[in-house]
Amino acid sequence: MHPPLTLHRHPMCVEIIEAFQKCHTEHPVGKFFGECTELKVKLDRCFRQEKAVKRKANFEQSKKLKETLQAQRKETAGQS
Length: 80
Hints:
This protein is mainly α. The chain has helices spanning about 15-25, 35-80.
């Protein structure tokens, strides 16, 4: 199962999503028998790459926030 295929939420995968949707419309029955499987595999890989990029960005943001909070705690402890 994949997330909703909205183009604005998956900018890295726009071309693959469009090809996958086109395959589904051109092969309404064939999609159940593996006609679009290759595109589905590419789509899943793209989603994994997208998630890895987001995860890395979130981790970096988290590290910066932790450092800021620790600096504020030291500052507050020094004032007391």
